Amino acid sequence: MTTGGRKRWWPALAIALLLGGGRIAWARPQTMHIMEGFLPPAWALFWFAVALPFWLLGFRKVRHLVQQQPETRLLLGLTGAFAFLLSALKLPSITGSSSHPTGTGLGAVLFGPPVMSVLGTLVLLFQSLFLAHGGLTTLGANSVSMAIAGPLVACGVWRLLRHRHGGWAIFLAATLASLVTYLVTALQLGLAYPDPAGGMLGAVAKFAALFALTQIPLALAEGLFTLIVFNSLASGATAELALLGLGPTPGAE
Amino acid sequence: MLPNINRRQTVSLLLILAGLLLFLLLFAAHQEQKGVAFAGTDDLAAALIKEGGGAEKRWFSGIGEGPGDLEGPLFVLQAALGAGIVGYCLGYLQARRQEVEAKHGDN
Fold first, then answer.
1. Which of A204, A203, A187, A205 is nearest to A195 (CA)?
2. pTM (2 decimals)?
3. What is the pLDDT of residues B35-57, one digit of tens each?
4. With an 8 Å Cβ cutoff, is A167 touching chain B?
5. ipTM higher than 0.90?
6. Contact, A129 vs A32, CB < 8 A?
7. Rounded to whole angstroms, how far apart are CA atoms A232 and A236?
8. A20 at the B interface (CB within 8 A)?
9. Contact yes or no for B88 and A8 at CB 8 A
10. Which of A200, A184, A182 has the alpha carbon at shortest distance from A192?
11. For residue A92, which phi and psi values (nearest 5 degrees)?
12. Nearest one of A90, A110, A114 to A102, comparing CA atoms
């Protein structure tokens, strides 16, 4: 048991030090979500209304998981921590601006979009309360883009491709979730601030060119990282994945 | 069908990921020497809105003041906490798998 206990803590410490150090190396506090008070009140309320049904469904599912399938609590914690981690990693991009991955693809594949809507919103709430990153008035909009739209796309891609090639399915699910998050953000800003010449479509195209191009290398990195983590779960959490309907029951022939 | 990537492939993926991140950081360092600020995308979005003639009407500035100089370290703390939990969970699951395999091997 001592050997097993010794093995359990060092990966955590190694990863924490590596990523904490990496984050220090690029510790330039700037924001990537829609900032506080940035959306007109009507649009802010609209996006809250869009997010609300997902939150309600998500809370019900999380409660069901915790009560009826307590074995999945470890994965639930890991999923939340994964989004917590990746959304804190602000990285530069080839366009001369910076952004951060979202970390929602993993949870969307494991638990589905409603659960991820809750976990992602909790991450956004933490950042808006303690880090002035994003905002409370824009929580609905940021939640729709990062915690709802991204996971929906991830889940769809996963279900389309999982039976042919699981590795590509998880990679593309996480990558496209990250990209779609910022495309939806572009849509939200374009709708709220139409371009004088091009109207809403022109504004959406302008914001999409900014957000999407910046996000491409980060989305690819997120896809790779998610694939590596999911592969580790596929070998180490077979029982939990079977409970979630993602793999054969261990021992079954 | 779950992914079934062997150790060599995992190492290759990690190297590709490390290479991509290293490229981005080196690119940023090089560009910063030329004066590129690498502003966050929503700061640039605000600039785009102003260019288009849209007024940035911030009708709410948040509850209290932001964390100020603590913002960077708080982001580091968030990343470290997340990484610590992810690392612990993965380490626990892998150690559990190895113990199960060892028990099956003994039997």
1. A203
2. 0.84
3. 666 656 666 666 666 666 555 55
4. yes
5. no
6. no
7. 6
8. yes
9. yes
10. A200
11. -75, 160
12. A90
